[in-house]
Amino acid sequence: IKLLVEVHPEQLLKFHSSSKDVILFLLDNKFQVFEIGGLRDQHQKPGLKPLDKDSRITENTMFYAYQRKS
Fold first, then answer.
1. Residues paired with 7 in a beta bridge
2. How many Cβ atoms from other residues are within 10 Å of residue 43's Cβ?
3. Per-residue CA distances from 60 to 32, 35, 69 (Å)
4. Closest CA to 37 of 61, 13, 2, 17
């Protein structure tokens, strides 16, 4: 399974959730999770940044996640 997820931290707070909750949910379900950088900035090269349980996301961003094989 491969996912492309757009995360809006401020909106998640309205639902008593957070970007950290999303990351932890994916990690707990055996997904490898990456932040996709450079999508909104024409001067920045797009790339993937691995995320882990200690990652903090404070602004709207895109995640790419794929499920690791058991």
1. 61
2. 5
3. 19, 11, 29
4. 61
Contacts of 12 (CB under 8 A, 6+ apart): 18, 19, 21, 22
pLDDT tens readout for residues 12-67: 999 999 999 999 999 999 999 999 987 666 677 779 999 999 999 999 999 999 99
Where helices occur in the chain by DSSP H, the ranges are: 9-13, 19-28
Pairwise CA distance, residues 42 & 10, whole Å: 24
Classify the phi-psi angles of 11: left when phi > 0, otherwise alpha if psi is within -120 to 50, otherwise beta.
alpha
pTM greater than 0.85: yes
